[in-house]
Amino acid sequence: MRVASSLPSASPLGAPAWARRAPSLARSGSARALARVWALAIAAIACGPGTGPSQPAAGASTPRSPTTIEIDAPPAVEIAGSTGDEAPAATPALVVDPTIRWIAAGGGSTPESNQHSIEQDLALAAEVFGGGGLILFAGGPGSEGVQVQDPAPRGDPVLAALAELFAPRGGRDAHYRRTTLDAAGPASADEVLGALRGALAGPGAGPLIFYIAGHGDIGESPRDNAVGLWGQGALRVHELAEVVDAGARPLALVVTTCFSGGFAELAFAGADPRQGAAPGDRCGLFAATWDLEASGCDPSPDRRAHEGYGIHFLHALRGEDREGAPLPTGSIDLDGDGVVTLLEAHTRARIAGAGLDVPTTTSERWLREVAPGEGPLAPWPTPEDDAVVAHLGVALGIAGRPDAARTELERIEAEIDGRNDALVAAQADEDAAYRRAAATILSRWPVLDDPWHPDFSDMFARQRGAIAEHLERDPALVAYREARAAVDHLHLEIGDLRGSAARYERLARAQESRLLAGRLARRGGPEWAHYRRLLACERTPWPAPRRTPP
Fold this sequence. Notes:
Elements: H1 25-38, E1 102-107, H2 116-129, E2 133-137, E3 146-149, H3 157-166, E4 174-177, H4 189-199, E5 208-214, E6 216-217, E7 226-229, E8 233-236, H5 237-246, E9 251-255, E10 282-286, H6 309-317, H7 342-352, E11 360-361, H8 362-370, H9 383-395, H10 404-444, H11 456-473, H12 475-523, H13 526-538
Parallel strand pairs: 1-2, 1-5, 5-9, 9-10
Antiparallel strand pairs: 3-4, 6-7, 7-8, 10-11
């Protein structure tokens, strides 16, 4: 199944996500598959500048009703920041101490996917993790690539309208400034993998925390999923597995991107379930399952507007809510041992997250691969899943009804399926309306869709008033704006529904994980032992203890 859309991919990697075949189709039915395919272009996704289900995705047009075009340019808006005349200092070759405690890497593959919230999340990670770590960010120290939302529109509105018609692209409503992070280097694929190899070489250094923030891309299978990195590069699951398999040190991976659950394949050697359990002690905690998006990546300069797994997870490690206010100890320290583990912070994100996130872990992935699908249970404590079930059951008004979450999730996804049917029809109308509108304007101004053409500047300067009037009044363009507004509205409706579905899916997965753990505990054996090993890694306390070399 291939899906056409007027929206560009929120991910800079490979083919547009909306044009990919949905891997969940074969196992989840048409409603669920279509919902997840179309979610690649909906609003408020973690791979786009949304703050919640009602915000547009990266590169998506802002929903709007047909409006008139202002011919007079708006007043200039002063943007704080550097002029860009000073080149950043050259970054020396990175040498990584093998006893380093953590690495935080992130940013986008290009400036337009380098939103302000990613920088802020990495700054928070450095603050929470403390000394003994390093940051790799976007283009490196001193780079100018942090995208910040403009407080008001800038530039010539007629040019902006033409750009939106002929070459829509994210980031035109934002400016760029120099990073404030004390980055050790760029977050390119070479630098990230090189730093990781160096850090994993120290077997006596204790567990390494590897935190990744940015944008994810879905692959043909979970092990093909990727995180976009600077320079239009990518870190794919199976590539990371090669480095981690060769490492000598325990690793706890935290990934906050869309489709980050693909990295849960690190539970297996080579990120391949056919190869069995992975060697060594490694685990991961992720903002979303391998085939779902997550919330985040917001260019807004207002930190209070940001939403996403990372902000909940990092604050929870300090015993705080997402605003930084202290929480009752028992609401995060679930076992009452006086320390917060990575898995307990992850649990807080599952409970408190307000966006599209459906977080998962390597232990969850292992359970779903090896645990019996039915059969008797053995008692096994699951405090983290218990907390999710208890809190979300009450919040959703279905406490004590074990089948209600899955039933409600199926109802919402059926509703999404209906919206998808309407969306397909609306996009066909939009495409037809666009062709008619483009034809009318290009019949009068043949190079108006090519600002690099040598005739463009002179023609635009002489004909700007006539072009503006045409954009405002031409019936074909009015019809196109109406058709586009209908498509945008449906995208937002689907985004709102996906946001509602996320909490039911978190609850349903927690219920399923408890059952699977009980069945695997009853069966025992090496697969049960590896599950406990994954859990022990995910329950790493922070600050993580150092090991004294022998």
